[in-house]
Design a protein that fits this description.
The chain has 3 domains: 2-56 and 240-273, no CATH class; 79-173, Trna Endonuclease, Chain: A, domain 1 (3-Layer(aba) Sandwich); 177-236, no CATH class. It is 46% helix and 14% strand. It contains 14 helices and 6 strands. Strands 1-2-3-4-5-6 form a 6-stranded mixed β-sheet, with helices on both faces. Strand 3, helix 5 (118-125) and strand 4 form a beta-alpha-beta unit. Helix 1 crosses helix 13, helix 8 (187-196) packs across helix 9 (206-217) and helix 8 (187-196) crosses helix 10 (222-236). It is globular, with a radius of gyration of 21 Å. It starts with 6 loop residues before the first helix and ends with a helix.
Length: 285
Amino acid sequence: MSRLFSATVLRDLGKQARSPLFTRLLDHTRFATYMSPEATVGTVFDEAFELLSKSRFRDDYVYRAAITEKILLGRHSLNTATLLNEVRAGSCKADVVVLNGTATAYEIKSERDSLARLRNQVFNYRQVFATVNVVVSTSHLSEVLKATPEDVGVITLSERFRFQTSREAQNRPERIVPSMVLEVLRVDEAAAVLTGLGQEIPAVPNTQIRSELDRIFAELDPAAVHEEMVKILRASRSQANLATFIGSIPASIRAASLAAKPTPKSRARIKEAVDTPLTEALAWK
C-alpha cells in the first residue's frame, strides 16, 4: 500500500496525469473494491494513507507526512519555511530538514527501522544543524532516549497520528562545524554565505574552489555560518511558489509532492489526476 505514495507514482502523475503503477497497485491489493462509486484518485490516496497511519508497521512515509503536515504546514508555512529531504551531513543523510529561523533535522525511526546507526547519525547531524530531533514510534522511545545526548529532541508519533514531545530539542548553533555545513551548500550558496559574512569570495579556478572554500569556512564562527546558511537556503531553495498547489491537493500526498519538486505543468497534471474519478483511473494502463 505504501508504494502508492512512491516517487514513481508521483512522477507518472506529473508527466502524464495518470499512473499505470497506481492502477496495478490497486488491482494487486483489491483496495478499489472497498471504495464508494463516487471516489476519486484523491479519495483513494487519503483512504490508503488512513490505513497506513494506523498500521502497527507504519513506514517512513507516514512519518514524513506527519512532519510535513504538523510542523512545516501546521506550525509554519511554505512562505516562511522550507523543507528539504535527504540532506547530507557528514557520512549520513538527514531524513528531513526544516528551515525557518534555524535549521532543524528530523531523523525518522519508524516501527520498521533499526536503531543500529542512530548514534552515528545524530553525531553527524549535530555538527551541521543547530537543532536535531529523532521522531520515533513508541516502541523505540526508551532506547532512543538512552542513546541520544540531552540536547537532541525525541518526539513520538502516537497511534492517533499525533506528535508528543518526550524531550525538547535545544537550539545549539555554536556546536556546528562550518566545513561540514559547506558540504550541504552548492558553490553559489557558499559564496552567498561568505558575502553575507563580509568575506571575500576566492578567485581560483573551478577545480580548486571547493578546497579553498573549505579552508575559509574552517576559520569562520560556527553560529554565524549557521545563521547565514539558513538565510541563504531558505531563499535559494524556497518552496513558496508551491504553497497554492500544496494547499489544493489531498493532505496524504503533500509530502510526496514536495519531494517531487513539480514544475508548473507537473502541478497541473497532478491536480488533474487526483480529481479523476476512480472508475476512470482503473483503466489507466
